[in-house]
Design brief:
Number of helices: 14
CATH superfamily: ABC transporter involved in vitamin B12 uptake, BtuC
Number of strands: 0
Distance between the termini: 38 Å
Radius of gyration: 20 Å
CATH class: Mainly Alpha
CATH architecture: Orthogonal Bundle
Amino acid sequence: MSRRVLTLVGLWVWVVGLSVLSLMAGKVWVPLSIWLEPHNPLAPILFDLRLPRTLLALIIGAALGMAGAAMQGYTRNPLADPGALGVASMAALGAVLTLYFGAGAQQPWIIAVAAMIGALIAVGLLIALAGEGSSLVAFVLSGVILQTLAAAGVALALSLAPNPWAKDEIITWLMGALTDRSLGDLALAGPLILVGLALLLALAPALDALTLGETGARSLGIDPGRTRVLLALGIALTAGAGVAVTGVIGFVGLIVPHLLRPLVGARPGGLLIPSALGGAVLVMAADIAVRLTPGAGEVKLGVAMALLGGPFFLILLLSMRRRLG
């Protein structure tokens, strides 16, 4: 059995195992026997809190992992990631603006639409600023520009927030969390994320062909313009819908492809499904860990991922600098 097949089997085992643990773990541990006891006092914790949270961690982790792999494959840049390069921040800015004006509180779907528009604008600007096959420096600087613009917009919204509720909601979105999410949130984000995943997965042959360059890809019947549009839509749907219900959860798409590439190969199209599984594993594991932190509250998931991803990003950047130098 090849290393790739073993890795995929192992990832599926982790997904199933962590899903079961996610339904059980927390300040109050819930035994799985509650599935057979719907009138048990602990049943609402399982069905109303843990089940939506687990499913959202699964689907959002998969979305972030595949989006990161797709961006890295298209740009041929190992630092590409919706969270690290401003896509998630621009999506959050779109969501924050709806909270600022009060529209999101009235119609939750408006938050999702605004977040996806923000992500779509970010992907377009990133590709336009950095260019395809751009250098490491150009790509990182383009991401810094987007992060700066998004941070400035969010800071302005915070400073001019019309009421304390709007300010608290904005801060919550910026930190990112799966706490107190419901099946309604899953119904809002789930279909959009699934469509985005399908779009990205359909680009697998194009991503493989683009490793030969645009000219080589055209000779194989790939339309780079169409690929660019579908990539932008796929990332906007996955990142935007995720941000709309959980806020900013960064670095998943950066970390996962790098960890899996030595195990499943560097072919961009072949990395999409493993990265989706790996993203689901990483987000569920991190969410379980933050639930089990000591104290009355819990660390926000976005904060935990930043603490993990920041040093990883720095180590990766330094290793690439030494390699290129």
